[in-house]
Amino acid sequence: MSVLLETSAGDITIDLLVKDAPKCCENFVKLCKIKYYNYSPIYNVQPNFSFQTGDPIGPESKDSDGGSSIWGLPDGATKRASKPEQMAFKPEFAKKRKHAERGTVSMATTVSKTNPDDRYASSQFVITLGDNIEQLDGKAAIFGEVAEGFDALEKINTAFVDSSGRPLQDIRILHTIVLDDPYDDPPGVIEPPSSPVPSAEQRATVRIAHDDVLEEQTDEEQMEKLRREREARAQALTLELIGDLPFADVTPPEQILFVCKLNPVTRDEDLELIFSRFGKILSCEVIRDKKTGDSLQYAFIEFATKEDCERAYFKMQGVLIDDHRIHVDFSQSVSKLSSDWRSSTNSKTARSKGGFGGFDSLEKRRQYRGAEGGKDRDDDYDYVFDKERRRAEPREGGGRDGGAVQDRERGGDKRKQRSRSRSPKRRDRHERSDGDRRHRSRDRYRDDRDRARR
User: Fold this and answer.
1) In terms of pTM, does the model score above 0.70?
2) Residue 379 lies in a domain
3) What is the mean pLDDT of the chain?
4) CA distance 246 to 337
């Protein structure tokens, strides 16, 4: 069983999975039959993820009721349901069906207000624009798959959209054709003789009509302006990601005045005294070089109110101060605002938590200790376990003497090297006889064995 959707982006043929979701398929087929989806907008386009449609008026319109199932008996022309209590139904979720392939068609669902484990659907449906969209599994009820029309899906996927995912130029379902219908019509369903014209509510949602021919922008000045705006937006988003801005759309304070072309001898007190006649000043700072302390010949003056700042702007333009004619403007800088935000944020986390940067999970961990105490890491890596624990581990060889002999044969040179840094009393053991040395090795082995057992 198949349905053909004629959209402004191209034709899309959908094969319905009648055995897996009979109720969803019946609802979809009957809504297509009464031309309920005609002129429905395609919205919520998420590139390489999915797009949504099925609300005949559009979710942004105040006249929209969200759509109705066929059992709500909606009218194909007015899109209004005559049985509002039956606008939603409980769809089937086939466990074996996943949103694994591009072009998977499923009913959009919402959680029940009475039982959070139940989900209900009406007329809205989703078509995936990518593979392995696992986020929709269990939330959207699969009832079909696209058989033809992937070029139309690609046009929708690459369409220019706004922040809400709505295409800037309308993409709409123009007509629906049922190729095969094995279901009986529910009582009260009326099939219109022809496709109804778009309703007034639908026409009111048109932004740029799908059949409008857009002229290519050739104004170089306007194109350069758009390019700069996009570049500034991208830079702001980057600064937000790295933590230099609290948010990308941050705007400079309206009560701060920027003053430049100052005389290098002009001080903070001088400016504050001159500008204080326009209103209360919260701060006045001449920006200076960090190393030399010399004035950089510009300053920021923060007034208590926006009105005081505006009066100073109109009155102080081109005024002579210390033989320099100054220039004033409203501040376009948010550096101070960002600095205060970062300081406040960092102080809260650092004071409430330990670790590195105020987070325990980012605590610095040393993997080696060879760099401490003048010790070379090439001589001994010295991992996090202690030497005493390593010395306490049982030796190879099984027997009491055998272990001591192997330890002596393998590490004789190392023991001699260590003995140079030990006390003179331990050096004397190298001058003793072999019998005394073997006796001391046995005693040391017993001590190590007892320590390991404990």
Assistant:
1) no
2) yes
3) 79
4) 9
Question: Which ranges of 246-334 would DSSP assign to H, the alpha helix?
Answer: 268-275, 306-315
Higher pLDDT, 242 or 188: 188
DSSP secondary structure letter of residue 160: -
Question: SS3 of 143, please?
Answer: strand
pLDDT in tens, 266-311: 999 989 999 999 999 998 999 999 899 999 999 999 999 999 999 9
Say yes or no: 26 and 100 in one domain: yes
Checking 96-101 for CB contacts under 8 A at 24+ apart, the result is: 96/20, 97/17, 97/20, 97/142, 98/134, 98/137, 98/142, 99/128, 99/132, 99/133, 99/134, 99/136, 99/137, 99/140, 99/142, 100/131, 100/132, 101/128, 101/131, 101/145
Point out which residues pair with 268 in neighbouring strands: none
CA 134 to centroid of chain Cα atoms: 17
27: in domain: yes
Position 323 in a domain: yes
Q: Is residue 360 part of a domain?
A: no
Query: Which residues have a Cβ under 8 Å from the Cβ of 94 and sit 6 or more positions away?
Result: 17, 20, 21, 142
Residues 118 and 260 in one domain: no
Rg for the chain, CA atoms, rounded: 39
Contacts of 2 (CB under 8 A, 6+ apart): 13, 14, 15, 16, 147, 179, 180
CATH of the domain at 271: 3.30.70.330
Q: How many domains does the chain have?
A: 4
Is residue 13 within 8 A of residue 177, CB to CB? The reply is no
And the tokens for 336? 């101070």
Domain encompassing residue 393: 367-404+445-454
Backbone angles phi, psi at 318, to 5 degrees: 80, 15
Shared domain check, 185 and 42:
yes
Could you report the per-residue pLDDT of 314-339, keeping only the tens digit for each? 999 999 999 999 999 988 776 666 66
| The pLDDT of residue 41 | 95
With bands split at pLDDT 50, 70 and 90, how would you rate the model's confidence at 414?
very low
